[in-house]
What does this fold into?
Amino acid sequence: MAERPPPDECANCGAEIPRRARACPACGADERTGWRETTDSVYDGLDLPDSAYADEPAPRPVRRGLAWYWYLVAVLLLAGLVLGIVGLR
It folds into this structure.
């Protein structure tokens, strides 16, 4: 099978590519790493959700209140304080 010639310019960096080049002289892109023509893309026709096109990540949910273990820590500290005061008398 005959090897296809590279495109006229690199799809990765835009530099001009010589006719017999195996890789882009500017960025090193080649057939496997990024100068494929858009018609050869394996991602053509891929249906992405609208969130894939967002510029910013989705906001994280805000948790309200304390976690259950902080209440447990408070009760244990209070019990220790009470037992410490009662034990000193």
The radius of gyration is 31 Å. Residues 1-40 form one domain. The chain has a mean pLDDT of 78.
